[in-house]
Design goal:
InterPro entries: DUF7127 (IPR055551). The protein is mainly beta. 0% of the residues lie in helices and 60% in strands. The chain has no helices and eight strands. A hairpin with a 2-residue loop joins strand 2 and strand 3.
């Protein structure tokens, strides 16, 4: 396993990318209830929308490839893909 990226800036989500021989995992700790989060993937881009009081917050980040699965649990988004 290789941990390729860790990013956190102020109030932004913690984002980590792990690469394995047979695939990869990107995990982001959003710190919000999963019911308020929707995630869509288009090609090698993840689009995360967080609904709450007021306007929704939208964020995009690049993935190492096309996603095979997306799970949101306890405020953590986990996206997995193969090679």
């Amino acid at each position: 396993m290789n941990l390729n990226q860790t990013r956190s800036a102020g109030d932004d989500a913690l984002l980590r990318r792990y690469e394995y021989e047979d695939g990869w995992v990107v995990a982001a700790d959003l710190g919000v209830d999963g019911e308020n989060v929707s995630v869509d993937t288009v090609g090698d881009t993840a689009i995360v929308v967080i609904a709450g009081d007021g306007e929704p917050i939208e964020s995009e980040f690049e993935l190492p490839g096309s996603a095979d699965s997306v799970v949101v649990e306890n405020g953590v988004v986990t996206i997995e893909g193969g090679r």
